[in-house]
Amino acid sequence: MALIVQKYGGTSVGSIERIKNVACRIAKFQSSGHQIVVAVSAMSGETNRLLTLAKEIQGIPDPRELDVLVSTGEQVTIALLSMVLIEMGYKTKSYTGTQVRILTDAAHNKARILQIDESRIRADLDAGYIVVVAGFQGADEFGNITTLGRGGSDTTGVALAAALKAKECQIYTDVDGVYTTDPRVVPEARRLKTITFEEMMELASLGSKILQIRSVEFAGKYKVKLRVLSSFAEEGEGTLITFEEDKNMEHAIISGIAFNRDEAKITVLGVPDRPGIAYQILGPVADANIDVDMIIQNIGNDGMTNFSFTVNRNEFERTMDMLKSQVQPDIGARDVVGGDKIAKVSIVGVGMRSYVGIASKMFRSLAEEGINIQMISTSEIKISVIVDEKYMELAVRILHKAFDLDQAP
Ligand code: ADP
Ligand code: ASP
Ligand code: MG
């Protein structure tokens, strides 16, 4: 008998029919002798619907009240799923994050889980119950409801698995595993049987929506065995996130491609080329708690240079305002320009460590299609480029083909 945590995403619980399907899968696992804890998302579309309601009242909704509102989506699902299981004759109890005592920090809308009190869940499991927990939510030390950021139910699932020392955390979604890229963009994308934890971290942080980045961080920190599977397929092994590179397996150099439209680019023009300039530009940005991603400073001529960087799209206006009003006059820059019609496309693979020429192949493939690269950043196992947003999907398709990701390695 093993303890298994299963997480079901929004599409998987999007209707009563689907909730019934999910219940059958849970029942099957329990009947075969396992202890089951389930984390669920809100029914598909529900979180967006609630966010839209909030925005009809407040342009920037009050963060605390927004959490009270959006956390209700998951509460609906836990009750419905539990009712179905009870109807099927199973002993079941549902809990909100607050009821479990999922303690988070106080950062509303993007809270981090600090601790989970697993005693109540354990007692229920020992008494033969299936335990159903609302994903995406917790409470801070004062009992204020918090939520964990979009896609946060993945993190609830993995955090529960870590706290309960589960044998495996199974993430059930609408695709049957982690693919070489989003199969909605590249139909030829292939499912990966395994992916290393490091690669999954990169893919998730570079925009691949399949797992929330924090869930992967948790899995790494607490060595949770994590598997992504389809809730629609009868069976299948999905994708296992592994901690060690499987030395026996032929590994492709590139494992996957991620993309996102979440960033905006800002360029400070005509900056005096002298020590301390990067700090004078980015210091105030950091002080305003704005994350900076890619940075480029060109080699100056005539003592002048241009300085570009990217920020999250929803911080674009705020950053531009601050630079124009404070930083530009301070450092005597000529102008501050920017735009949010950009996209980031990244190739990821641990194989990059042992091969040269990957970057040049990437750049050549994009050049052959006339796609201009605006910025580049690299790490040991990834290369990211910023391109015009309208070329994003084309760039992903070209790179997928160029690196033979549609062929089995
Ligand atoms: P859930 O509601 O179950 O949490 P999500 O919509 O958050 O599901 O994540 C699943 C989706 O992630 C898929 O439908 C797919 O379009 C997208 N996706 C993005 N990148 C990948 C990838 N590399 N492999 C598989 N799916 C991906
Ligand atoms: N319901 C939340 C969202 O849509 C959390 C989740 O589904 O993981 O982002
Ligand atoms: Mg998700």
Can you give a write-up of this model?
There is one protein chain. It is built from 13 helices and 20 strands. It is of the alpha/beta class. It has a domain of 172 residues: 3-Layer(aba) Sandwich (Carbamate kinase), CATH 3.40.1160. Helix 1 packs across helix 4, helix 10 packs antiparallel against helix 11 and helix 12 crosses helix 13. The longest helix has 16 residues. The protein binds adenosine-5'-diphosphate, aspartic acid (ASP) and magnesium ion. The site of adenosine-5'-diphosphate has 19 residues, from loops. Aspartic acid binds next to helix 7.
The count of β-strands is 20
Q: Within the largest sheet, what's the order of strands?
A: 3-6-2-1-9-11-12-10
The helix/strand class is: alpha/beta
Average pLDDT rating: 94
What is the global morphology? globular
Helix content: 25-40%
List the ligand species.
Answer: adenosine-5'-diphosphate, aspartic acid, magnesium ion
β content, as a range? 25-35%
According to CATH, the fold-level topology of the domain at 3-174 is Carbamate kinase
**What does the radius of gyration come to?**
23 Å
* Low-confidence segments: none
The N- and C-terminal alpha carbons lie at a distance of: 36 Å
Properties at a glance:
single chain; 409 residues; alpha/beta; Carbamate kinase; 4-stranded antiparallel β-sheet; binds adenosine-5'-diphosphate; binds aspartic acid; binds magnesium ion
